[in-house]
Q: What sequence folds into this?
């Protein structure tokens, strides 16, 4: 039986957590007792509302780090902030990510560099900074939010797919390094998740392709997901929460799909 407050006294850092999946994960970890460092983009007043809401809803402490995932020093400072405010970094969730779609021979160099930096280099720097705190505590959980594209590819997403395959390799390698020290490292691989960002893309796709809303959802967005259902943020958040529990202590180095059967083909 997993305690309902099994992360009480522990600290979680969640990147890209001012909206979408990251915010869902931050709230899930706060819900099982963790103090939380949130991070991400957005209007300052809105971010403060989110931060205060997490703290009030779950009776934990929640602070905000403005760390820019393009800047390694900012990432180190974010982990240092968790340590100075809460005494360590017990859970690290690397969730921040960006996407750009173009043929490989037309892919802008600046987009390539930014995607590589945010999707792959930033998790590396965060892990590097957090692992010493986890080793000192003899316990830690690292969760990398990858994608179904860590397991399969799609055209016109060469850089994004490369970074997500890279995250799978980073996950496995670090898991082997720290396996004997009470630290687990896993990657969650969502398919299409129903987020405000995905929903906002539907009208443009309808217009560009001359399709109905239902056609965009079923024949474009969910074409690869046999369930024909979006993954829900709460499902991903619950999965992350479970991976932080003692019930998941022997799950490490795993690349774990949560994508409605997409990669079962």
A:
């Amino acid at each position: 039986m997993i305690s309902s407050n099994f992360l009480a006294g522990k600290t979680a850092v969640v990147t890209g957590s001012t909206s979408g999946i990251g915010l869902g994960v931050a709230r899930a970890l706060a819900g099982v007792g963790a103090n939380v460092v949130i991070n991400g983009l957005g209007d300052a007043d809105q971010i403060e509302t989110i931060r205060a809401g997490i703290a009030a809803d779950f009776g934990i402490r929640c602070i905000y780090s403005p760390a820019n995932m393009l800047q390694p020093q900012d990432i180190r400072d974010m982990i240092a902030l968790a340590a100075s405010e809460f005494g360590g970094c017990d859970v690290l969730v690397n969730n921040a990510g960006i996407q750009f779609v173009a043929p490989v021979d037309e892919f802008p160099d600046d987009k390539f560099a930014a995607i590589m930096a945010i999707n792959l280099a930033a998790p590396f720097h965060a892990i590097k900074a957090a692992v010493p705190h986890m080793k000192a505590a003899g316990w830690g959980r690292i969760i990398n939010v990858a994608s179904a594209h860590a397991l399969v590819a799609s055209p016109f997403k060469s850089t994004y797919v490369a970074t997500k395959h890279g995250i799978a390799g980073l996950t496995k390698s670090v898991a082997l390094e720290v396996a004997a020290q009470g630290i687990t490292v896993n990657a969650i691989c969502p398919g299409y998740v129903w987020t405000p960002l995905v929903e906002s893309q539907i009208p443009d796709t309808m217009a560009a392709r001359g399709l109905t809303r239902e056609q965009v959802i079923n024949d474009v967005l969910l074409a690869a997901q046999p369930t024909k259902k979006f993954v829900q943020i709460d499902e991903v958040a619950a999965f992350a929460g479970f991976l932080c529990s003692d019930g998941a202590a022997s799950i490490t180095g795993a690349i774990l799909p949560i994508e409605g059967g997409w990669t079962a083909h």
Summary: Residues 11-193+232-260 form a domain with the Rossmann fold fold (CATH 3.40.50.720). Helices lie at 20-31, 44-58, 72-86, 109-137, 158-178, 196-209, 213-221, 233-243. The mean pLDDT is 96. The chain has two domains: 11-193+232-260, 194-230.
